[in-house]
Structures are given as C-alpha cells and as structure tokens.
Amino acid sequence: xxxxxxVARLFALEGEPVDAKPYGCGHINDTYCVCCxxxxxxxxxxxxxxxxxxxxxxxxxxxxxxxxxxAFLREAVIKSGGDPDRECLQLVPTKDGALYLQDEEGQYWRxx
Length: 112
Description:
By secondary structure, the chain is an alpha+beta fold. It contains three helices and five strands, in the order αβββααββ. A hairpin with a 5-residue loop joins strand 4 and strand 5. It is globular and about 40 Å long. It starts with a helix and ends with a strand. The mean pLDDT is 95.
C-alpha cells in the first residue's frame, strides 16, 4: 500500500517532501497536507488527494474536466489583470508531466 508521502514524491514538488499528514475532515476524498523542505527557504506546503473512485466512477473524465476548468479560469484571471498563481487553483504535475496519477493499486492521486 502506498503512503501519501511515497505518492507525494512522485509529483514535481518544489523541495523534498518530508511529511504528509491527513488534512481536514472531508468525507469523499482522502486529503493530506504535504510539507516540503527547501534549501535555504521556508517549507512549501501542498494538498495531495486520493480521489474516491467509488464515488467518482470515471476519474480520468473528472480530472480532464478539472484540467479544462482550471485552465479556463487561469486565462480569465490573466485577462482581468490578476495574479493567476495566487487566484487560481493549480494542479501540480507528476515528475512524468501528468496532472494526476494512478498507482499500482488502481488508486488515483492529484496534487494542488
């Protein structure tokens, strides 16, 4: 079974993931706060989620929709003169460049 910290290390995070703790009290997905150590800089935090594939029967379609919606919103923020890095949800790619992954157990993961 993959731990959240092991999965976090598969994403292209800024810094080295050193901790992943359950975050919040959601009842659909499993959510973790991942802390990354960065040389000479403050820690960086990310949200990592294991998507509930029993609730979301077609996770690739769900993620495709999320990718399109966040790209659309990012462009809207840019056009309005805003700061998309602060005003828009951003999916963090895996080290292979994908915006989500499926582990060997069939679990789907995404990172923000």
